[in-house]
Amino acid sequence: MKKLNLLYFSPTDGTKKIVKEIANGIGYEYKEFDITLSQNRTENLFFDENDLVIIGVPTYAGRFPKLLKGYLDKISCNNAMAVFVATYGNRDYEDCLLEMKDLFESKGFIGVAAGVFVAEHSSTSKLATNRPNNDDLNIARDFGVQIKNKLNNLNDVSELKLEVPGNFPYVEKNIPQVPMAPETNDTCVNCKVCAKHCPTSAIDFDYCKTIDATKCIRCCSCVKRCPLNSKKFTHPGFNNMKNMLESNFADVVRMPEIFIG
Known about the structure:
The protein is an alpha/beta fold. Helices cover 25% and strands 20% of the residues. The strands form 3 sheets. The chain has a 6-stranded mixed β-sheet with strand order 2-1-4-6-7-10, sandwiched between helices. A two-stranded parallel sheet has the order 3-5. α1 packs across α3. The chain is globular and about 60 Å long.
């Protein structure tokens, strides 16, 4: 039996829910590596042929999160099996899944399965509202069962031929990345929930209205978690993007996709 590990980046918890439900379907006890917060991306990690690692990230503009690429230097592997999971906010995952597969397989991981799941968009609740829902989680759990069955019937890793959608060279969005951060209104009571959950430590822990826009990745963890709805993006660039998404994708229904080698 493989040692099951969960390795995920999940600012608004959608990816985390999916990864854990896949693990529930596999049914093994697992070790968690939640690399969402900057303080959890400092230690070196090593996985070997006795490990099965479910790796989960959200899609950023059709790509693997840039923030994590430096951290990959701290991850090493000797033929561990991997399940690649990408979530996206109902627009498109484009090349994220392929890029993730390429990045981790180049480090020595062996892809056994992959999946893409829909989670409520970080920028607007009007896209994929309240997802992953119960149907998504049931599909994720069944995906875990399928992975376990695949491993139980696998004679040799050379039998694995995992293919996932995507294109290389990966998609490039030529959109200027203007530094921006959410505004904080006077309802803020400095409870520090936002600062505790910020993946880049962009929010001042002592005075939560102070945010370093050069560190902000617009994950909206602070916006969604604030118990008083004190934070909101007001930058025109953000609002233009949000309006485009709501106009084109709010009524679209995407479904999970799974791939097994």
